[in-house]
């Protein structure tokens, strides 16, 4: 009651269906090439036009290669999917940020950085990491393709209202501990289903002190604890970030928006269905050892001994043993990027470790900015020079090795230290073994060739 | 896809694993199609086939002992990616019901939107069902949507399952949410007008 989640959700209820779900109005729909073609087909089959085309933004990101984007995509099936999005966007009159346009990138990176995702909005996309946009103070969540079609057809969706949860993290993060480590810590505490059925508000000193990039990383990973979405009440950090963005309100509209945005917080008397409190002092740089994101430990800890069949299946896939420490383990690939950690701050963090050091000779490193705007800023700040001097090359933007729908696939049995969001079996390529971590841990592994505590290199 | 739902009685295919994510149900490399056809062929692809395409004999979909249109899976089924392709793969393979003790949110909606019924049961009921199926693969399970009950015919044990009245009506009558929403456009326009 009287939570920020209630305020935003309730302000978007068109009606409550008798003995059924809520009909929720959606301010912004994002579409990418993988989860939209069947929705467009459905619209055509029903003879429908998009109800509010100006509220829909499309861009390809999952299939895009991270090199030679100026040439046609080599994989004909990927090419068809990317071309289909462009054709559908044109046919239905939707904004489309095509590959190689300066506006393109991963949807969950581009939306906030262009001011398309704003406080108080309801935002959906056929992608579970839509929770990212919650960092702007929005109610944002992933949906299936049938639901994408619902929004295209009516700008509404039928949903059961989730329960509310507040996660408060008090204290100060230690040196070398980032928003990613906080999220990995929460997943390990809650498991991958601990927040299923809930919408999470993140609060507390740690969250307040996070940059916008850090907040986007934290909210991005809400789904990995099962939560439909996670968000942070907007404050001056949010407003400073949004001000001047291309699609952000300007002039009088800005003042009007700010007056509303300032009201977007949970009441002092707010009652959450569940409250959890954690202490930053308990969080160290983290890594995962298993095949779901909840299977994680502090980087200096050992793999626990649980012994059940599911756990053993995971360890067998990963080639790890119970009780084993991962520090010093040889790794093969490093991936910096994804909607989780493909922003400017992530590249700054990575560069801060590799500066003055060299990439380990036998490590393959893929550094993939989340958008062309991030790429531009990397170059403006001279980070490209730092990274190149250390033996790293910057690739072109896209989802890349996070889910390996393009050519960036980790081979079977190889270890990939990755700043992405999922370590599921085969996620980064059939048989690939993923170790999730922050950009600092990834950088430390990239220069040493083994799992390394980044605090020893700071 | 819009198959009307009533009472289904069938043998089951047991998958006693927990946290089965949608990347396992349908790996990302099979998401490149622009239609909904053929996903069933790649359901659980990397558990069902080796990298060279040969069959993994001891995976349950390849075991001729187990058949039927009910999939029974461990808790937290369908976690991870929102890909509806997972529901298309389950429906495309021929499953009409998935029984588990816990479902991930987005996947549960995706199943419902494709006329696959997710039936959430207690952990005890689930474990007993796994045991009965293991003892006798011909065990029949009855899923009665009108009465919202699921019955293990071998033991006679029955449980009530939840589904909201609206969605139940949709499944039993072959209606979907888009039909409903499009019929409500006046309300939406009125709401938009009042908001401004």
From TrEMBL, chain B:
Entries under NCBIfam families matching the protein: leuD, PRK01641.1
EC assignment: 4.2.1.33
Domain Aconitase A/isopropylmalate dehydratase small subunit swivel: 4-123
Alphabetical keyword list: Amino-acid biosynthesis, Branched-chain amino acid biosynthesis, Leucine biosynthesis, Lyase
Protein's organism: Prevotella communis
Pfam families given in the database record: Aconitase_C
InterPro entries: 3-IsopropMal_deHydase_ssu, Aconitase/3IPM_dehydase_swvl, AconitaseA/IPMdHydase_ssu_swvl, IPMI_Swivel, LeuD
Catalytic activity: (2R,3S)-3-isopropylmalate = (2S)-2-isopropylmalate
Name listed for the protein in its UniProt record: 3-isopropylmalate dehydratase small subunit
Pathway(s) the chain acts in: Amino-acid biosynthesis; L-leucine biosynthesis; L-leucine from 3-methyl-2-oxobutanoate: step 2/4
Keyword set includes Amino-acid biosynthesis: yes
Domain of life per record: Bacteria
Entry GO MF terms: 3-isopropylmalate dehydratase activity
